[in-house]
Design a protein that fits this description.
By secondary structure, the protein is α+β, with helices and mostly antiparallel strands. The chain has helices spanning 3-8, 36-40, 44-50, 69-81, 96-108, 112-129; strands at residues 22-27, 30-35, 63-65, 88-89, 93-94. Helix 4 packs across helix 5 (96-108) and helix 5 runs antiparallel to helix 6 (112-129).
Length: 130
């Protein structure tokens, strides 16, 4: 192939992303709609739950998790955008109880980066305040 042929050849197409299927996660009494990709990118727990290895879907196609829906909101927000949570009030400071509760959920759902950050955040804040 000559130099002119390689310069005129069309660039190879970008790889096509396969669309991620929509999933409904039932947490306690609330339903959360998201995509499979969002749920499995950082969580082996959700990768396993949503895999076809086990028949874990409910009759309506949703997946049930026995957890606190208020905490799950923060988990899902993190999985969607990878933004680490900050629970801070001008008058009260950081909400350590919420950080600790979210840490337990992050560990349970096997979200390593979030769990590590929460462990460091809580530990650093406690050491600084003491």
């Amino acid at each position: 192939m000559s130099d002119t042929e390689s310069q005129d050849a069309p660039a190879s197409p970008l790889p096509m992303l396969t669309p991620s299927r929509q999933v409904i996660i039932q947490v306690g009494d609330r339903r959360f709609t998201t995509t499979e990709r969002t749920m499995i990118e950082e969580s082996p727990f959700f990768e396993s739950l949503l895999s076809e290895r086990w028949d874990s879907a409910q009759a309506d196609g949703s997946y049930f998790i026995d957890a606190d829906p208020g905490l799950f909101e923060h988990i899902l927000r993190y999985l969607r955008r990878a933004v680490l949570p900050v629970f801070y009030d001008k008058l009260k400071g950081h909400d350590h109880a919420l950080y600790l509760a979210l840490l337990e959920e992050a560990k349970y759902f096997q979200i390593a980066r979030l769990a590590k950050w929460l462990e460091e955040k809580v530990l650093n804040d406690v050491l600084i305040e003491d």
